[in-house]
């Protein structure tokens, strides 16, 4: 799955919501805090982590690629 950037970056919580992998910002916060989300293969704990072109987010067996 791909998310096309409208700006220079998208925040991790927003990307999970935009991809439909979480139902709300609160749920995104919880799954990130619990260490269930990886960015470029590394567990990420910051909901506000900025994602740029080429970044790959993994959660619940799904991958999201960020594209410009």
Task: Explain what the structure shows.
The strands form 2 sheets. A 5-stranded mixed sheet has the order 1-7-6-3-4, covered by helices on one side. It has helices spanning 12-18, 25-33; strands at 2-4, 10-11, 37-39, 42-43, 50-51, 56-59, 62-67. A hairpin with a 2-residue loop joins β3 (37-39) and β4. The protein has one domain: Roll (Structural Genomics Hypothetical 15.5 Kd Protein In mrcA-pckA Intergenic Region, Chain A). The protein has 2 helices and 7 strands. Helices cover 24% and strands 32% of the residues. α1 (12-18) packs across α2. It is α+β, with helices and mostly antiparallel strands. The two termini are 14 Å apart. The radius of gyration is 10 Å and the shape is globular. Pfam families: S4_2 (PF13275). One of its GO terms (molecular function) is RNA binding. Keywords: RNA-binding. InterPro entries: S4_RNA-bd_sf. This is RNA-binding S4 domain-containing protein.
**Relevant CATH superfamily:** RNA-binding S4 domain
Q: How many DSSP helices?
A: 2
Radius of gyration from CA coordinates:
10 Å
The CATH class label is: Alpha Beta
Give the DSSP E fraction (strand runs of 2 or more residues): 25-35%
The second-level CATH architecture is Roll
Report mean pLDDT, rounded to a whole number: 96
Poorly predicted sequence stretches spanning 5 or more consecutive residues = none
Secondary structure: number of strands: 7
**What percent of residues adopt helix (DSSP H or I)?**
10-25%
Shape: globular
CATH topology: Structural Genomics Hypothetical 15.5 Kd Protein In mrcA-pckA Intergenic Region, Chain A
How many domains? The number is 1
Largest sheet, in brief, is: 5 strands, mixed
């Amino acid at each position: 799955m791909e998310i096309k950037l409208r700006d220079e970056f998208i925040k991790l919580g927003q990307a999970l919501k935009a991809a439909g992998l979480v139902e709300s910002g609160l749920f995104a916060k919880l799954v990130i805090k619990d260490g269930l989300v990886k960015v470029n293969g590394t567990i990420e704990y910051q909901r506000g982590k900025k994602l740029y072109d080429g970044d790959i987010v993994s959660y619940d067996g799904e991958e999201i690629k960020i594209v410009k």
